[in-house]
Amino acid sequence: MGRSWRADALFRRGRRAFAAAAALTILLTALSAVLIDREVELGRARDLLDRRVLAVSEHMATLVRTLDLALELTLTQIPRQDLAQARNDASLHDLLARLRERMPTLESVFVVDGEGKLVASSRAFPIPPYDMRQREYFRAYRNGETGLFLNEPARGQVSRTENFVATRPILSDGVLRGAVGVAVLPQVLVSLYGRMVGDAPLLIARTDGVVLLRTDGARMIERLPEQNEILRQAKAASAGIFTGTSLTGGDRALHAFRVLAAPDLVIAVAARQSEVLAAWRKHALCIGALALLAMAALAAVAFLPRGRVEAAETPPPEPVMAPDLALLDLLVLRLRAALSTGAGEAALRETDIIAAVLAAARGSPAAAGEAEVGEVLGDVAGLATAAGLPDLTLQETRDAAHLTVHLSPAPLGAALLDVVLGMARAAPELARIGATVSFACVGGDEPGDRLPGTYACVGLAGLTDAGGAQAFALGRAIVEGAGGAVVERRSAGLWRVELWLPLVQQASEVPVA
């Protein structure tokens, strides 16, 4: 008794130690999988944001160059006379209007004189002398600015809409004579950039924080504070990706930015981290649930009492047939292919066949049901072709292929696949297997030991001298479990395997021939 007690204690300790080690391994594996998956999702988001901000930056750089060229062209064609006297010159208006027509993205082209009065515009002739002295570009030119200037958004006095404006000064011997400018339709750029970045907030700002353009996701932002993370990052590098506070809220977000050196613009795109990691959270929940289930199973095994049933009282185990691993490999490959292409119906079919193979291997009876022989043969033919097995050709005779038998589609498909795989394995030279379906009736007064009844006889035949009945153990178990039989016939190099299946109209058992 002492030895038995000590043996039981040691056994329990060993089993619990093994369960604890296995649980720790599962926990660490699950944690590693969750962390790796998180980095993968963040990496995808970074790549996507970088591609988006690069596309917008390239387009914006091209747009700025185009606007600068348009301004240079206008400067070269403006009359050398005093701009104040050109207000009544229709040719200047015609020049601006033609330039506007050649560039559909422009809302208007205009000229301002040295006193800040509007002289000419592509919108109308003559144009009222609106006062532009308080515009940011005019104040910048009076303070010594001499190059291309992108004005802060301002409402136009003629269009009454907020414009994206680029200007150049008109200088004569270093003296400011006026300015020429173009106003771009902001809706066109916002719409275009919105399609480039999707739902992600986008803004285009000067390096001093003035926001020039923004999509709907960032429409509440008019100016970036001096200590804004985007501006600080832009001062340190010309491009980058970082995690910081969202543009429109206090939550965390991924930001991608690029700096255009001329004329000192920052393009930034953001994506909320909560949205980026939404798919990762679902994956993490699934991994965690599987890990918990596995650890619960280990805990149950660790604390089970050790059995002490005498060997004489232990019933002999039921015989279990080893499943055909080649058949399972084929079905698993087909299942993966169906899942990767999103073919849900095909995936369910392969899953049902795998379940039927495992049930037959355990000796469980085939699932009750009905199947149309021709339809199942068609599915099996497709699987055989995809797996590189011999072509399975159905040779229909009248309506025999539409016979319905007492066997579910999945077990029937598993039995047919096992026979086709066995024939191909036993006779590698087989290139084609012909399939026939015929109606068979066994009467009570016929010789032999077969019971009377009606059957669908599915014949699979190929020209070969090879073959062996042992190759169809799984298929034979499924068919015989449904009350049918598997019969082999040979004659003059023809190998024919017949599956006798009870018809729905009159089911009966048929012993093996």
Automatic annotation (TrEMBL):
List localization entries. Cell membrane
What name has this protein been given in UniProt? Cache domain-containing protein
UniProt domain Cache: residue ranges = 75-220
Source organism, top-level taxon: Bacteria
Q: What is its main location?
A: membrane
Q: How does it sit in the membrane?
A: Multi-pass membrane protein
Q: Which SUPFAM superfamilies match?
A: Sensory domain-like
What InterPro entries does its record include? Answer: dCache_1 (IPR033479), Sensor-like_sf (IPR029151)
Keyword Translocase part of the UniProt annotation: no
Q: Name one GO cellular component term.
A: plasma membrane
- Residue ranges spanning the membrane: these are none
Signal sequence interval, chain numbering:
none
Q: Which UniProt keywords apply?
A: Cell membrane, Membrane, Transmembrane, Transmembrane helix
Coiled coil (UniProt feature): none
